[in-house]
Amino acid sequence: MRLEQILGIEDSDIVTFENxxxxxxxxxxxxxxIIPQLELLCxxxxxxxxxxxxxxxxxxxxxxxxxWDEKYRGERDxxxxxxxxxxxxxxxxxxxxxISQWSAIPGASRHHWGTDIDIFDATSxxxxxxxKLIPEEFSGNGPCEKLNHWxxxxxxxxxxxxxxxxxxxxxxxxxxNRDLSRKSTTLKPISIEPWHxxxxxxxxxxxxxxxxxxxxxxxxxxPFSASDWxxxxxxxxxxxxxx
Length: 243
Ligand SMILES: [Zn+2]
Hints:
This protein is 38% helix and 11% strand. 33% of the residues are buried. The strands form two sheets. Strands 2-4-5-7-6 form a five-stranded mixed sheet. Strands 1-3 form a two-stranded antiparallel ribbon. The two termini are 19 Å apart. By secondary structure, it is an alpha+beta fold. Residues 111, 116, 118, 193, 196 line the site of zinc ion (ZN).
């Protein structure tokens, strides 16, 4: 295992994926080691009357830096919890915390590993539903309510977990997840992303390999806007990776 692989800097194990019974987004790639189980997951869903949409898989470090820097420089909107752009910040800390509510800090995203995937109900998208990726979509009368139930029943049989969602906790209110105050200068844990699945056998190796020291070294080699702030908050950032 090499650090560059885990941080999304080196992608020799990352491959494209296709499945006739799933909707796979353009540019979607994952770690080649998870293909057999992902195939099985897609087929099982299909046989149970659910077509999976694979929205987002691997993301490179550089891609995350680009997103991060554009937000930091004001070239992309930084949104509050109601998806409205925030126009002003009192200091860099506020800005950093606001960006991190919606965008992973480069190096500290599970999507760098190729083991994690954002999924959705493909049928709703084919019927014209505009994807938002908010928790409500997986509850009540949301388009992924059936998928949510199916995931609870089937996901673990294929080695996957939902690291940012607990089916036993009844907290599907998005405001508890995106608890974004304009004055916030603390990093909030990512707690509710029912669409985010992770292949545990591989992901658990990666998470154990990443340390605060390795992240700090990486940010020194490949800096981004406010990466010095990240260095000073590395312990909290490590917690965002989940378990
Ligand atoms: Zn995700």
